[in-house]
Amino acid sequence: MRKREYLGQLELMVLLAVIRPAKDAYGVLISHEIAEKSGREVALASVYAALERLEKKGFVVSSLGEPTAARGGRARTYFRPTPTGLREARDAHETLLRLADGLSPLKGEAV
Question: What domains does the chain contain, in order, with CATH numbers?
Answer without folding.
Answer: 9-103 (1.10.10.10)
